[in-house]
Amino acid sequence: MDTEVTTRVRTNCRACGHAGCGAYVEVVGGKATRILPDKAHPISKGYLCRKARGFIDDMQYHPDRLKYPMRRAGERGEGKWERISWDEALTAIAAKFNQIKDESGPEAVVFGHGTGRSHHRFIYRLANAFGSPNVLANGHICYLPRLAVSKQLGMSVPIVDYDNHPQCIMSWGSNTIVSNADEYIGVNLALNLKHHPKYIVVDPQRTKLAEKADIWLQLRPGTDVALAMAMMHVMVAEDLYDKEFVEKYSHGFDQFAERLKEYTPEVAEQITWVPKDKIIAAARLFAEIKPAAIQWGVGIEHNVNCANSDRCLIYMSALTGNLDAPGGNVMFGPPPGLPRMEFCGQNFHDAVDRMLGGEKYRLAASINRTSPHAVWDAIEYGDPYQARALLIMGSNPLVARENTERVERCLKKVEFLVMADVFPTPSTELADIVLPAATWLEFDNIADYWKSHGYIFPRPKIVEPEGEAMSDIEILNELGKKLGFEDQFWDSYEDSLDYILEPEGITWEQFKDMGYLRNEPTFRKYETEGFKSPSGKFELYIQQNADWGYDPLPAHMEPPESPAREPEFVQKYPLVLTTGTRVKEYFGSEHRHSKFLRKKHPAPLLTLHPDAAAARGIADGDWVYIENPRGKVKHKARVFDGIDPRVVAAEFGWWYPELDAPGYGYRDCNINLLTDDLHVGPESGATNLKGLMCEVTRVPDQETADPGQLEAV
Fold first, then answer.
1. How does pLDDT run across 670-700, given as a tens digit for each residue?
2. Do 200 and 253 belong to one domain?
3. I want to staple 24 with a disulfide (CB 3.0 to 4.6 A). Which of 36, 78, 438, 481 is the partner?
4. Are residues 32 and 110 in the same domain?
5. Are residues 196 and 54 part of one domain?
6. Beta strands 109-113 and 135-136: pairing type?
7. How sure is the predictor about 712, in pLDDT bands with cuts at 50, 70 and 90?
8. pTM of the predicted model as reported, rounded to 2 decimal places
9. Are 354 and 494 members of one domain?
10. Alpha helices in 556-642 (DSSP H)
């Protein structure tokens, strides 16, 4: 008779990189058994995705998990390892870092992290203590540019106030019910759509959301700025903008209005492929209905127009009177607790001249971000100095970073590479030391501390770590002490949670049994506080950009590869390629170990129109090659009439962890082998992942076997 008791622990799920959904975890005999939704959670409202439902069996207790620190015992990539103790690992890392610091300066060590990881506060604290201004992340193309632009405008990032039910919603480059982007969780959009607001969708593909839209604007990938400027052209030309806001609270409207004259709907139609009548109709609809809100995704940041795309959508919210208005795009501000930058320690701003890419990409540097290609320049060419060591936590750069060939060269060349992860990956194969990271079930933490919706949630430890796995924040806390900064770190990392909560007058022990803490929102704060910009107003003309050598006004920049290039190039590569299509089953390069998820989505898909497929002899389900000047990779064809015949859309993050082969087969399927890091946005160093050019051909029959081995997952 089974006498083991089932307990249920309330927590905040982190089965995906962004996290944020309320959940209960059932535990039997010290083992987690399943994850259930928390229907009372204020953000997720009872929603729980399939990544969470498959996490326990397929990820938490997967036999391939990293469980012990390992040191390379052969050449990089040979797969020869020796097990070492935690003390040996951290001592060796600290000794090497301090040696490099003494010989080349602290900036020769680069610290890195992946998307949405709650340990990034510790990465910055450690980098600051060590003296390195170089923190490598993917923020140059993902969410952080909007933080930088918002900071430049003197405010926090504005997000949709779904609780006050916008009467018009515009989803722009955001398939929210699939991707569940930061702060939002797709259920909030879905619930609001039940109230039948007017709905506009801007997306190159006919998604499920586009099918619900009153107006679907099917733009050419990478042309968001031209479309947004044309919509604002209509709003200003037809006096549909909020004159009171402009006159009282904005700066530079006359210069901005002059720039808008260049972006007529007719001009935008030529650039974006969106019919001018649809542009006009969407502009009128969004301007005339109140309140209205823009839900925008990171797709608009995946190109050289990154910063201006973010700027334009914030401008559109302000011009229509929806900025910081109930039901509009609201600045909810920081969550309760210690301000995040205070936790990170001293500010990097004084070290811009030493930060890789800092003086060139001033917008990125303004929020302490180093663009990846600047790091690769320093490793590969010693420009402007030699980067000698990398510490990367929770990231798989060989798959997740653009220009894979270059990433691989640099990971092989760098003198000392340390990686921490839950599983072996193509990237950990190249490390000198690999550290086993705990999962979110295995340590105490404060969830959503880095988000902008005004909440924080407890995420308590539920089970013991597998093997000797250690949480990222504990690894960083212990490494900080090994490096000689005992006064800046804690005897136990749990003490840092008390430090964060101290301004609220509570301890972690008290908070872990609470549902959440929240800073209650206020609206139209600019009426009494103004904006924290040089002018004190909302700046439509940004003098700081001019001072940095950038355009002070938004303007469309044609992608470096586009149909406008020379005819010989376009004839060879006639299709516009957009990468990074989101799917429900995966987050970035994670979750490919999961049998549950792989059975639902076993292979990378390339979406192409029936006309494009027929012209190339391709049928739905065929394996195809995607090829451009940088190489070719293999995807499976998804023939679908909801995409322009001139455009194809590829997924990213693919590798096959079940393959017993170097790199787990990532070179066969990784779309980042075709992306580029040499043509970048001027302000943040954003790389162009949308609007590339390619050709697609059917893979010959003798080569069409699935390179993965699903049954072995």
1. 999 999 988 888 888 888 888 899 999 999 9
2. yes
3. 36
4. no
5. no
6. parallel
7. very low
8. 0.95
9. yes
10. 567-572, 595-600, 610-615
